Amino acid sequence: MSKKLYLLIAASVLMCGLLLAAVLVPPITATPARVLTKEPAGRPADMVWVPGGVFEMGTDEYLGPGDANPDRLKLDEHPAHNVELDSFWMDATPVTNREFAKFVEQTGYKTFAERQLTKDDFASRGADVSLFKENVINPGSMCFNPAFNKQQLVTGVPGWEHQVWKIVDGADWRHPDGPESSVEKLLDHPVVHIAWEDAASYCEWAGKRLPTEAEFEYASRSGGKDLKYPWGEEFLPDGKYMANFWQGEFPTDRRNEDGFLTTSPVKSFPPNALGLYDIAGNVWEWCSDLYAADYYAHSPRINPKGPSESFDPQQPGVVVRVQRGGSFLCNVNNCTGYRTRARGRGEVASSSYHNGFRCVVDPSMLAAYHERQQQIAAFKPTGTPVAPGQ
C-alpha cells in the first residue's frame, strides 16, 4: 500500500469517527432521546408544559462579598453541573388564596400557622427549640415589622435582615398581616404563611406535587436557557419592572414604583417564554428538596431530587428545604432571589408572609390527577371532605 493511499484511508477513518462522535455525544442543549418532549393529551388545567432536556444548573462564578459582587452570587450555587430532566407540567402561577380556600373548604385543613403547637411539635419537625420560652406556642406566623428601630438596626452581619421580622400571633393565610387583616380582597394574590407541609398537603389533594429545585430552575430559565433573570439579562429592560420586588434600599427605604408594597395579584407582570407567571418575585416558592449548601457538588445528573439530609451552615441541625424565585422583599442589598440560579431555603417548621408555592404534574401522574380532579369537582359542601391521600 502506498503512503499516499494509507494517508487517505486514515483521514477517511478519522473523519468518520469525528462525525460519529458528533452524533453520539449531544451538546449540553440537546434533549435526550428517552425524554418525552411531545406534550401528551389531557393537559392539566391552568398548567404549562415544560419539555424535558439537559441544561447546566448553577454557576461557577463567584465574586466575593460586598460591592464586588453586586448580584450577590453565593457559593451554594456552585458548581455548575449538567442536569437531565424529564418533561412535566407546572402551574402557570403560584397557588392563590382563592385556590387554597377551596382546598380548605373541602378538607377542613388547618395550616401550620393556624395550629396551637408545642415545643415538641416544632422539635419533631427539626426546629431549634432551645430559645423557646413557653411549651405551648400560640398560632401565628412571621411578618415584616415596618416599625423596626432604624437607629438600632445593624447591617453587614450574618442574618441582619431578621432584625426587621417579628412573629405575629394570629397571622396566617387568612390574615396575612395579623388577626385584623383579611384576604377578602386578595383572592387572586398568592397564598402566604404557608409551611412546607401545608404546600405538600395541598399538592397531594390536587393530584399534584411540589417541583424539585432542578425543575424550578429549568422552568424559570424557559427550558434551561442561559438566562440571568426569567425575562432575560437586563434587570429593568427599558426601565420596565418585570417582577414584584422591593424598590429602594432594604429595609429603610420602601418605595412603591411598581404599584405593590406587598404581594401582587398573579399575572400582574409578564410571563417568561414558557408562559409561567411570577416565577420570580412576589413570593418565595417551596420546592420538594431538602436544602444542603454543598449539594451541587454531588448532585445526580438525572432528575435530581435533593439530598437525603439537609444542612444549612448558618443553622446546623435545623431541617430546611429549598425555596426559589425570591419575593416582594428581595432587592440587590437584601437578596437577589429573583435571579434564575439563586437558591433560597426555609425552615420546615416555619411560615412567613412572603412564602407560597406552585405545583407540578408529570406524565406518569396524569391519570391519577384527572381522577382526583373529578372527585374535587363532585364535592358537595354537605358531603365528606376530600382529604389528602383519600
What is the element layout, followed by pairings?
Layout lengths: L2 H22 L22 E4 L2 E5 L23 E5 L2 E4 L5 H11 L9 E2 H6 L11 E2 L2 E5 L20 E5 L26 H11 L6 H8 L63 E7 L29 E5 L19 E4 L7 E2 L3 E2 L4 H12 L13
Parallel strand pairs: 9-12
Antiparallel strand pairs: 1-4, 2-3, 4-13, 5-6, 7-8, 9-10, 10-11
GO molecular function: formylglycine-generating oxidase activity
Keywords: Signal
Protein name: Formylglycine-generating enzyme, required for sulfatase activity, contains SUMF1/FGE domain
CATH superfamily: paralog of FGE (formylglycine-generating enzyme)
Radius of gyration: 23 Å
> Could you give the order of the helices and strands?
HEEEEHEHEEEHHEEEEEH
CATH architecture designation: Alpha-Beta Complex
What's the CATH topology name?
A: paralog of FGE (formylglycine-generating enzyme)
Q: Could you describe the largest sheet, including whether it forms a barrel?
A: 4 strands, mixed
Q: Indicate the CATH class.
A: Alpha Beta
Strand content: 5-15%
How many discrete domains? 1
Low-pLDDT segments: 1-30
- Largest sheet: spatial strand order: 11-10-9-12
Instruction: Give the proportion of residues in helices.
Output: 10-25%
Shape by Cα distribution = globular
Overall number of strands: 13
Distance between the termini: 77 Å
Please, how many helices?
Answer: 6
Given helix and strand content, the structural type is alpha+beta
**Overall residue-averaged pLDDT value:** 88
